[in-house]
Amino acid sequence: MTVKTFTLPDLGEGLTEAELVTWLVQVGDTVAVDQPIAEVETAKSAVEVPCPFAGTVRQLHGASGQTLDVGAPLISVDTGAGDGVPAPQGGGPKGGQTYREEERAGADPAAAAETAEDGSGNVLIGYGTPGGGSSGRRRRPKKAPSATPAQAAATGAAHDAMASAPRLAPTVISPIVRKLAKDRGVDISTVRGSGPGGLILRRDVVTAAASPEAAPVPAAAPVAAPVAAPAAEAVDARTGLEVAGRVPVSGVRKVIAEAMTRSRTEIPEATVWVDVDATELVELRAALKARDPENAPGLMALIARFVLAGLARYPDLAARIETREDGSQEIVRFDGVNLGFAAQTDRGLVVPNIRGAHRLSARGLDAELKRLAERARSGKASPAELSGSTFTLNNYGVFGTDGAAAIINHPEVAILGIGRIIDRPWVVDGQLAVRKLTQLSLAFDHRVCDGGVAGGFLRMVADAVENPVSVLADL
């Protein structure tokens, strides 16, 4: 018996810890190479961690809700080496699908690349199991001879025996397959896989979901559920009120708290704002949607395009301040903009960013806004997608608010807030009229620029919102 311990891998982007959300296997389960064994939540996203070993689970190091440091033991697996019992590999026989191949939506198992015996080389945020070739080449699988009826019957019997083995962890490698099962209310442990070695594929989940006997997936407990207060602390000494529960400040909430505290501590910020008549912008958006309902950019994308034009003229607002070893500071300017935008998720407020946003049209920005927002809300955004922005847009109007003094997303030096667009009285050509009004507010680092730069940028964006057709002609 050889027991190997797998430690929590380096999750990249400077992340040094992760919260263990839930185990996907139990002690005694049989696991395959690259099979997801646990779901962890970092300050950036929630990810499934695959196991680099195949064998039987001997020990789970940690409980749900516990925070583990990178490099700490995560799981111990009896690989079966030395006792004459071969360990399962890669979710089935060679030629089986890896989870990346399954993500490509049901590739033919017979056409899949051969899986290395000690790992597939699949990567998860800076972590890869052994066996990934450095050349990136895939070996063409050898053509297997046609099976005789007897061999086919033996293979089917082996498949049935494997599928019905007691305490066998579900043979599913793809996170997409797991998510599909969860979304359709299918208990993955009850699904019979049609892939090699009983590997569960998309079509198996779809078939199980269509069956009336499909078992529902038990509801997962909330990650940050309030913890009941001990009896000794049933009453708070300061307020005299009963303590209803305690919620640890961890994960995204911990990072938000640290970033906001650092921003307020280090950045001498100032805020300027302006009321803007967005009537023509709303009408332009309606006309574009009437002409092309599927591809018309949204208001956020159009405003983002105006913001990028403003940053091209006032690049200091998309810069960064760095402190050198001798204590002196310098302003670092960039050739381009990574545009961040605040996205509210179940895990808290995160800031996905569109890399190289200055190169995109309004339609391109709209597509990226939708894609990144969906990834952020599903917890699947990568650390690279949630860091590296140089300027942030915050559309707090979606919450029904008119204005806010936003906190700068450190280490950036400015953030632009957009309030809700509502009907208000407004003077047009000396006459009172009902117009679509919004408020733009800019918080900026006073170390980088003064009010003239901030006001010039804000006025340029406001003018673009009020006269979008003339501005878009120059973009």
UniProtKB/TrEMBL annotation:
Peripheral subunit-binding (PSBD) domain sequence ranges: 172-209
Short name of one Pfam family: E3_binding
Co-factor(s): (R)-lipoate
Gene Ontology CC entries for this record: cytoplasm
Catalytic activity, EC: 2.3.1.-
GO MF annotation, one: lipoic acid binding
Start and end residues of each stretch annotated as Disordered: 77-162
Keyword Acyltransferase: yes
UniProt keywords, alphabetically: Acyltransferase, Lipoyl, Pyruvate, Transferase
InterPro entries reported for this sequence: 2-oxoA_DH_lipoyl-BS (IPR003016), 2-oxoacid_DH_actylTfrase (IPR001078), 2-oxoacid_DH_E2_comp (IPR050743), Biotin_lipoyl (IPR000089), CAT-like_dom_sf (IPR023213), E3-bd_dom_sf (IPR036625), PSBD (IPR004167), Single_hybrid_motif (IPR011053)
Leading EC class: transferase
Domain of life of the native organism: Bacteria
Residue ranges, compositional bias (Low complexity): 144-162
Domain (Lipoyl-binding): residue spans on this chain: 3-78
Family statement drawn from the similarity comment of this UniProt entry: Belongs to the 2-oxoacid dehydrogenase family.
Cited PANTHER family: DIHYDROLIPOAMIDE ACETYLTRANSFERASE COMPONENT OF PYRUVATE DEHYDROGENASE COMPLEX, LIPOAMIDE ACYLTRANSFERASE COMPONENT OF BRANCHED-CHAIN ALPHA-KETO ACID DEHYDROGENASE COMPLEX, MITOCHONDRIAL
Protein name, UniProt field: Dihydrolipoamide acetyltransferase component of pyruvate dehydrogenase complex
Record organism: Kocuria dechangensis
